[in-house]
Design goal:
single chain; mainly alpha; about 425 residues
């Protein structure tokens, strides 16, 4: 059927409709004008067979989605011109997905291999093909990273050089996230990270791991936020860079003044293994102390303060056990912006946290800590009296002995009040 035949057929249907409909005479001229507009529009649309435009592309997407490699190859090979094949692979569905986006959704990498084998294009064409985004600004690489399809990602990247891969992985979607951030937020498989970065240099990996989203979060922040099941992924990220870069990355704050170890503590009270792994990734004892004691610039809290306030006993124990005894006291005596030590905060939590904080030090050092006063002049015992948690008082009394406790009870705060007031 020709375009003219389609126009005449549609016009005849419209005219019969008009004849069968009793229009008010005053509206006759309106109907006439509408008919003229309708005829022009239909004539324009019918000059091209709309079904022929996207049928091959729609069929290609469907065959890719079903994993039918033979039929994918058949559709692409029906075009003798390689540019026509490339155009079909580039074509997008209603969500902006290309055939490569759909291939990235599949765990089986053979469909992606088939597309590239049939296309027979150079690395520059592959690079530009992989830069194409869907309506969410995601590349096919991000789609594969989100689903943890390491084999498919390897097929995508196997012919590209490290600079092109770094460029691709630096590309951000509409949420200002890179492929590494998307991967870290949605799956915990370290194989996906290796597939994305194994051909890159240490400096290129560090460049990608240092990139931030609109919240200032790095891929490592995303992994820590996702939970303790990401321990292996976090370890893979840290192992991929050198010790100097590792420490710098671990201390990188987001816009909420959070660094990765803090996020691990916040996320799960049972994140002990993750905290231990993060601490042990820093080999130098001095740097480990720095990582634990550097305060949050927002409220001055160290990692020990945050773990204490979150009642994360395992994390508190892990932090202290990974420090030299002398440095333990230094960290325990560290004050936040209100002048409170971790032990001050423990009085508002429970006895278990207090025990973890003081059980590793002797009575003399414990007495030193109990003498520390915050900006209001309160010692830990003032806080204990205020919260009414006498079981904490009893535990501290048993550790120090009556004579030592007697002198502590006489310390006055800024309001001239002792423990007894």
């Amino acid at each position: 059927m020709t375009a003219q035949d389609r126009v005449q057929g549609i016009n005849s249907v419209f005219l019969k409709f008009c004849e069968c409909t009793s229009f008010v005479p005053i509206c006759a001229h309106i109907v006439t004008n509408l008919l003229a507009i309708f005829q022009v529009s239909i004539t324009h649309l019918c000059t091209v067979n709309l079904l022929d435009i996207n049928m091959a592309s729609i069929d290609l997407h469907y065959k890719v989605r079903t994993g039918n490699t033979q039929e994918v190859a058949s559709i692409l090979n029906s075009y003798t011109d390689n540019s026509a094949k490339l155009s079909k692979v580039r074509s997008q569905d209603s969500d902006g997905l290309t055939a490569l986006h759909v291939a990235a959704q599949q765990k089986d990498s053979t469909i992606a291999s088939t597309i590239f084998d049939v296309l027979d294009i150079g690395i520059n064409e592959i690079f530009h093909l992989l830069r194409q985004t869907n309506h969410d600004g995601q590349t096919a690489i991000e789609t594969g990273a989100q689903r943890g399809h390491a084999d498919t990602i390897s097929v995508f990247l196997r012919q590209l050089d490290p600079c092109q891969i770094t460029n691709l992985l630096s590309q951000k979607n509409n949420e200002n996230c890179t492929a590494l951030m998307v991967m870290a937020s949605h799956n915990s498989n370290p194989d996906t990270f290796h597939a994305l970065t194994n051909t890159l240099s240490i400096s290129q990996r560090m460049e990608l791991l240092s990139m931030t989203d609109h919240n200032g979060d790095t891929p490592l922040h995303h992994a820590a936020k996702a939970g303790t099941e990401n321990k292996s992924l976090i370890a893979a990220m840290l192992d991929s860079i050198d010790l100097e870069d590792r420490e710098r990355l671990l201390k990188q704050m987001n816009y909420e003044n959070n660094i990765v170890p803090m996020l691990a503590v916040f996320r799960d009270h049972h994140a002990t293994d993750t905290v231990v792994m993060l601490l042990e990734s820093v080999r130098s004892p001095h740097r480990r102390l720095s990582l634990c004691s550097d305060p949050n610039c927002f409220d001055g809290n160290t990692k020990l303060h945050h773990a204490t306030r979150s009642s994360a006993e395992g994390s508190v124990s892990a932090i202290l056990s990974h420090l030299h005894p002398e440095w333990q006291l230094s960290l325990l005596a560290r004050k936040n912006n209100d002048g409170n030590t971790a032990l001050h905060l423990a009085t508002s939590v429970d006895l278990a946290i207090t025990k973890v904080l003081v059980n590793g030090i002797d009575a003399a050092l414990c007495k030193e800590l109990l003498q520390v006063q915050n900006h209001g002049g309160d010692t830990v015992l003032h806080k204990v009296a205020r919260t009414g948690k006498l079981f904490i008082f009893n535990h501290l009394s048993h550790k120090l002995g009556k004579q030592s406790m007697s002198s502590l009870l006489r310390i006055k705060n800024s309001h001239d009040n002792t423990f007894m007031h």
